[in-house]
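#lab-general

N.A. 3:47 PM
ok so I finally got the sequence cleaned up, no stray characters, all 515 residues accounted for. can someone with queue access submit it? mine expired

B.Y. 3:52 PM
send it over

N.A. 3:53 PM
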Amino acid sequence: MVDSFLRPCTSEEQLLFTHNSPSPCPPLLLDNFPLSVADFESLLPNSFESEGHVFIAPREYCNDLELSNNNTEFLLNFIALLEKVTPDSKQCDNLLLHNLILDTGIIRQLVEKVWKNKDLNTYGFLAVFAASDGGVTRVFPNKAAETWEEDPEPFNASYYRRSLDNKGYIFRAPYRTARDELLNPENDTIGILVSTAVEITIGGKTIKPAVVGVKLDLEAWTDKFKILASNHTDNHQGSNTCGPNRGCEMDCEANSEDLLCYLIDDGGFLIMSNQKEEWNKVGMFFSDVDPYLMYALYNNSFYNRKQSYDYQSVCERVPNSENGAAPRGVFVPTIADFVNVAWWTSAAAWSLFQQFIYGLAYHSWFVRDEVDAEGIDSTRERSCVMIQTQYFLSNLSSSYNILQDCGNCSRLIHAKRINNTNLLFVVAEKMPCNTCEIEKLSQEEEEFKEENPCEELTVARYRKGPATCFDNNLAENSSDCGRGHSFRPSLYTLLLIQLLLLYPAISPHFHSLLH
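B.Y. 4:20 PM
back already:
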C-alpha cells in the first residue's frame, strides 16, 4: 500500500551534509499487512520509550468516546474504550478506526527498520516524526515530545498543511516576535522543523497520505549550511580578506566578520544565520533582524506583500482627557433641600418625580452612565479597522546580484532560491552605517488610520453581497413587514400611577365621609 516514507537523497540535498557524514535518506519498503494486535499495542504509553511518543487526532471515533483537550488523557480514554468494543462495532466509525490503527502500524515499521538504527546526533537531528491523514503522529525519541508544540490534529498543524500544498522540503522555525524574550542558544536548544509530503501513485493518481520530517539542531546545522556559499576559485589558496577596495571569496565561514549569510523562508522569517549573536533571533520576521536588508529584498521584488483589512475588529478605547471622574446620573437632593419648602416648588423636585415615574414604567431605577477618569483602565472596546500584512516569495528562481545604494553606505547583495525548498539564500556585505531612509516593514497586525477621514467617508466601502438570494415564497406571511412596535408597560404599574394621580382629587371626599 505504501511504497516508502523516505527515499535516497538527491545531489542537491547532499550539499547540506559534510563529506564524511552518511546519507540520512535510506529507502524503506513496507509490505501490505492487515490490522494486528501489535499495531494497537504500539499506541500504549508503555511503548513510547522504545518506539516514540504517539499523538492521535481528537476525532469522534466512537459515540461513547470522551473527548479531551489533553491528548494524553484522550489517548487513555481511546485505549480504554477499545478494550471494551471492537473496531467493527456499530457505535464506532469503522473507517476512522481502521485508518488510525493501520497508519500506526506502518509508522511503527518505520521506527523499527530505520529510526532505531540511526544515530540522530550524527546528522544533527533533535527528533524525527511522521504524521498521517489517519490521525496519528509519532515523534521519536520519546523525550522530544516534551517540546513538541504542534497540533495533534494533522490537518490543523501548520507544517502538515504547508507540506501538502507545496512540493519539496518546508523549513519552519518557531515563530517569535520582537517583543518576545530573546533565546539563549547556550541554554535553549533551538529546533528547525523540516517536513515533506509522502507522494504515492496508485492507478495513475498521486495521493499524499502522510508527512514525514525532522527537527534540526540549529547549532549543528549552521555549520553545515555555510558550505552552500562556498565559491572558491582555487581550492589550494586561502580565502581573500574582504575589504572596501577589494573583492573577496563568497565564503560565509571564513569571512563571517565581513559577510552576512542568511536562510530566510517564504514568509520572510529567519531560519539560519552565520552570525552567532543572531541565533537568538531565529524565527523572527527578518525586518526585525536586519530592516535594511529586508527592505532591499522587498524593493527588488524578491518578496511581495498582500494586505487585507478587517473592518469588524475591536480595539481598546482611548480615554478622553476632557471627561471628569464623577459618574453621570440624576440629581440627588440633600437633607437641606428636603427641609426647604421652596425646593419642593422648583423644577428639581418635578424632575425627580418624573424620574420616579419613568423608573416604575420602564422597570429601571436611576440608571447612570459611568465615565472613567484619565489614567484608569477601561474595559470598554471600540470598533476599528485592522490591517493585516503577509509577505511571500515571488516567482524569481535564478540567482541575482543587486546593489543597495545608500551613498557612502552602498553594499552588494547576492540572493538565490534554493531548489526543492521554501528557502531564500542571501549573502550581503555588512552595512557600514545606518543612514539609509527606508520603510520599516512589519507583518504584525496593526490599526489602520486614514490620513484624511473626511475623504474616506465619501467613498463607499465595497461590501460583498450574499452568494445566493432568497426566492419569493407565496406562502410567506408578509403582513408584519414594516410594522412598528410600541412599548407596553405593566398593567399594574399603570393602575398604580392612576391611583397616585387621582388621590389628591378624591381625598376630600374620603375625609367628609369619615366625619
